[in-house]
TrEMBL record:
Transmembrane segments: 33-55, 75-95, 102-120, 126-148, 160-180, 192-210, 321-341, 361-379, 386-405, 411-434, 446-466, 478-496
Naturally occurring in which organism (per UniProt): Cettia cetti
Record-annotated Major facilitator superfamily (MFS) profile domain positions: 37-502
Protein name: MOT14 protein
Classification via CDD domains: MFS_MCT14
Keywords, comma-separated and alphabetical: Membrane, Transmembrane, Transmembrane helix
InterPro entries, alphabetized: MFS, MFS_dom, MFS_trans_sf, Proton-linked_MCT
Keyword Hydrolase: no
GO molecular function: monocarboxylic acid transmembrane transporter activity
Membrane topology qualifier: Multi-pass membrane protein
Location of the protein in the cell: Membrane
Keyword Transport: no
Record GO cellular component, one term: membrane
Length: 515
């Protein structure tokens, strides 16, 4: 099962009118083609996130080739990782207009183009544009649809499905590191990037597998989900007015928009019939006009949904729990990235290079991270377990490890802490599930786009900030302490807001009862 919105103290009350309607479950929900979606998302994580975690191999080649400072050269990798996540909200607009399949295919072409053009780089600044920006945007256009499609196809096993698909990051880190290292040694880094660009074209195949669900299938999923939530929330009774005042996403504007669209298409069809009776030669122009009109309506509808989600009366930002989730995301991801960037230097300072060469600490994080995602996903799907509680416990474990890591000065101690970091960071597979519980499946693309955008900002500035702290103090200890404390602030926001959401409706109901 999954954590309902009541588990996190927030009730949206959507689709209440159709809860009693008997339905026939779609075989593709939680089964059938849904597992092909998991496979597609798994391959996307290997080709995108795995490749980005293996950029240390190319970073060494760029340092030797261009003779630039380590800080300047490191921005190539940081831009690629950061932009992949930062462009999430804008990719949500593409998904609203074109759908996940088209967006992912275009992104696959753009990502491959970025890799191939980077093979001809003459300086680091050229790589900023080709690899950092071009490949980064392409990666973002594939990554977000891969996450959204899993959320659409799964209901009862969402946490497990997201966990299985995101394990591709760990597998990709091993595969792409070995591949890039071999290609750079045998063929040089330029040919390696060219070949990697050709491999990245497989992202288009992954996008083609993202077959969209029909509107009927989505409506059936909403009904099933509403019935499940009703059984979980019999003790809760909030008025419709109270729910709307706390940030519910309205449906009336969309209905009006659809009615207007039907009128436009109806008028076009009427003109086409008149054209048939008047002249057959004008049919081509009328059909072209109808096609353009349909495309215009699709774009307008997608933009209206995207705009209303971010800035309209139904804005996602009226959901205060979701805003707290954004604040958490601004601090969380850097705590996971910083160990990957700075652990090799810490190992060198502690004279542990010989042990680390046998079994690198970053490899321990990556390996255990795979198991963490799957195990946490299985636990979250248990009927008696709340996904929200599992998510919070994993965060508390991770922030504790970040704060204690500087205290470990032996390889065994660092290995244990790194293993805990890898396992607890498996909560990444729960992020789409928690996001969907907050805003619903319909707004998952836009909402998760905002979350990964905040993660991108964290990934972009977190490691450079940690390096800046080291330049001042000549120690990495304060880098981990500051990152851990900021992370704790984000967790506190997650704890406070759900409590406020639970209290406010009850107070209002009491006042109304007294009146």
């Amino acid at each position: 099962m999954y954590a309902s919105r009541e588990d996190i103290g927030y009730d949206f009350g959507d689709d209440s009118k159709v809860r009693r309607k008997p339905i026939k479950p779609n075989p593709n929900i939680d089964g059938g083609w849904a597992w092909m979606i998991v496979l597609s998302s798994f391959l996307v994580h290997i080709l995108i996130m795995g490749s980005q975690m293996a950029l240390g191999i190319l970073n060494m080649e760029w340092l030797e080739e261009f003779n630039q400072s380590r800080g300047l050269t490191a921005w190539v990798s940081s831009l690629s990782m950061g932009i992949t996540l930062i462009v999430g909200p804008f990719i949500g607009l593409f998904i609203s207009m074109c759908g996940c399949r088209t967006t992912a295919i275009i992104g696959g072409i753009l990502n491959a183009l970025g890799w191939i053009l980077s093979a001809y780089a003459s300086n680091v600044h050229y790589l900023f544009l080709t690899f950092g920006v071009t490949a980064g945007i392409g990666s973002g256009m594939v990554y977000l649809p891969a996450v959204v499609m899993v959320g659409q196809y799964f209901q009862k096993r969402r946490a497990l499905a997201q966990g299985l698909s995101t394990t591709g990051t760990g597998f990709g880190a091993f595969l792409m590191t070995a591949l890039l290292k071999y290609l750079c040694t045998e063929l040089g880094w330029r040919n390696a990037m060219f070949i990697q660009g050709a491999i990245s074209l497989n992202l288009c195949v992954c996008g083609a597998l993202m077959r969209p669900l029909s509107p009927k299938d989505l409506r059936e999923k909403y009904v099933v989900r509403s019935d499940s939530e009703e059984n979980r929330a019999k003790a809760l009774s909030h008025s419709t007015e109270t729910i709307k005042s706390n940030g519910v996403l309205g449906e009336e504007p969309e209905k009006k928009e659809e009615a207007g669209n039907e009128e436009v298409l109806g008028s076009v069809q009427h003109v086409e019939i008149g054209g048939k009776s008047a002249s057959g030669r004008s049919m081509y122009g009328l059909r072209l006009f109808k096609t353009v009109s349909q495309m215009t309506i699709t774009v307008r509808k997608g933009f209206a949904l995207w705009y209303s989600s971010y800035f309209g009366a139904a804005s996602l930002f009226t959901n205060r729990v979701f805003v707290a989730f954004i604040i958490w995301a601004l601090f969380a991801y850097s705590s996971f990235v910083i160990p990957f960037i700075h652990l090799p230097e810490i190992v060198k300072q502690y004279n542990l290079s010989r042990q680390d060469n046998v079994f690198p600490l970053t490899s321990i994080i990556a390996i255990v991270h795979i198991f963490g995602k799957v195990i946490l996903g299985i636990i979250s799907d248990l009927p008696c377990i709340s996904t929200w509680n599992v998510f919070l416990m994993a965060n508390f474990t991770l922030v504790t490890c970040i704060l204690t890591l500087p205290l470990m000065q032996t390889y065994i101690g660092l290995a244990v802490v790194c293993a805990l970091i890898g396992f607890s960071s498996g909560y990444f597979s729960l992020m789409p599930v928690v996001t969907e519980d907050l805003v619903g499946t319909k707004h998952l693309a836009n909402a998760y786009g905002i979350i990964i955008c905040a993660n991108g900002i964290s990934a972009l500035f977190g490691p450079p900030f940690a390096g800046w702290i080291y330049d001042i103090t000549q120690k990495y200890d304060f880098s981990f302490y500051i990152a851990g404390l900021l992370y704790m602030v984000g967790i506190i926001f997650l704890l406070i807001q759900p409590c406020i959401q639970k209290i406010q409706p009850r107070e209002k109901s009491t006042e109304e009862a007294q009146v």
